């Protein structure tokens, strides 16, 4: 199968979980003997190669041109007022149009590349996907990792929501990351018969407790001022309201009542940084809550999981939550938000012999505190929860499983297009 993958972020340009997903899944496609071309963003300076071969994948990165000065008169009011800015919207549009033009005019029509289907990830690249489908008649797969309405609690851009809707209508197949997300798409009017679920994955060899020495774990814990008998709760991710980090901080006084030696490490970047620092000061939690306002590379992220006693992700909206898988693969119990749209509710087993963590109401600090204390107050139970989590990852959530399921969906789509109706 020859697959054109359109994705806004891709190594070395990784912003969040989408970039990690794209890198892992495309590599697995190649190992399954499929040809993959990736069309992604260049960096702000245009310093990355516009065309290169990396890990068996041909990568195309169009050079950006700034069209933001020409946009205000031709775009909707909500984009003009957009917090992310016209500059970002400009880059997204240019990336989409240059990608579609390069694939259609240069690779297919001039160099005679022959693709079986085009795959677009989120609204950030589906504009190009729609154009390519129209020009070449290729089947279009639209991967929805989240929605504008969900990310912004209904306060986002109508333009972005409309692009998502258009992608859903034009695509031949919509792939999403959880049944919770499928239900959300149905509520938003996506054609239900097109939507299929395929979970994300993790690399259990890379995310393995065997990969991190005791010395590295001790060194990292010392960086956060933890003593030998302290119990470390970890949050790692974007510091935005939808991740529920503020409620996690509010839960700490209750946690400390039952587990006085508990500490919380918060790692990430986001627009809530100043607010979170002020909240810690207000609650007098400076000794118990430690911040690291950085984007942590993967190798260091793995050490953080290895060093912690529990990973906590009280998201208010989380279509999947790959961080929960990473922690489970590292044999750590997890506490996850399970209200509203929550793919983590499907990943984490909250009870029974296979229990790997706890489901909590992310809007309730007392419930978050219950989950954290339940995960760490009994040492034997903590170990068992972690072992159950890794076993679940090995059985259901490796990248191999995710790639095979995805390729199966693509193959079924191509076969249906070749079969006379």
Can you describe this structure?
Helix 1 (17-31) packs across helix 16 and helix 9 packs across helix 14 (365-376). With 421 residues, the chain is an alpha/beta fold. Strand 7, helix 7 and strand 8 (195-197) form a beta-alpha-beta unit. It is globular and about 65 Å long. It contains 16 helices and 14 strands. It is 45% helix and 15% strand. The longest helix has 24 residues, at 85-108. It folds into two domains: 2-201 and 399-418, 3-Layer(aba) Sandwich (Rossmann fold), CATH 3.40.50.2000; 209-396, Rossmann fold, CATH 3.40.50. The strands form two sheets. An eight-stranded mixed β-sheet has the order 3-4-2-1-5-6-7-8, with helices on both faces. The chain has helices at 17-31, 77-80, 85-108, 123-136, 148-152, 158-170, 179-187, 214-223, 245-258, 273-282, 298-307, 322-329, 344-347, 365-376, 379-396, 399-418, and strands at 2-6, 35-39, 51-54, 57-60, 117-121, 140-144, 173-176, 195-197, 231-236, 262-267, 289-292, 310-313, 334-337, 357-360.
Tell me the number of structural domains: 2
The CATH homologous superfamily of the largest domain corresponds to Glycogen Phosphorylase B
CA radius of gyration: 22 Å
The CATH architecture of the largest domain can be named as 3-Layer(aba) Sandwich
Separation, N- and C-terminal Cα atoms: 22 Å
Structural class label: alpha/beta
Portion in strands: 5-15%
From the 3D structure, determine the CATH topology of the largest domain. Answer: Rossmann fold
Shape, principal axes of CA atoms:
globular
Uncertain segments are none
